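REQUEST FORM: STRUCTURE PREDICTION
Request ID: SP-0412
Submitted by: Lab K.M.
Chain count: 1
Length (residues): 82
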Amino acid sequence: MNFSLTPQLEHFVREYAATGEYNNASEVVREALRLFKRTEEERHLKLKQLRQSINQGDDAIKRGEVTAISSIKELEDFFEKL
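STATUS: Completed
RESULT:
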């Protein structure tokens, strides 16, 4: 597989590899991809959890389990009870 980096990214990879923390530029890129993969997995999990919470909220509304708040005072009182 071949890919191109911008000059700035290439410079960053080469500099990081030169620190000795990684043996070569390929290791730097592999680590970056592992981190990207983990970030994407976490993002997808958070999105799944958010969708579940929205569905639970929608279901609660359908069951009439709601609290109507029509003023700042009512909102403050609501949060104090939590």
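NOTES: Residues 7-81 form one domain.
Reviewed by: T.R.
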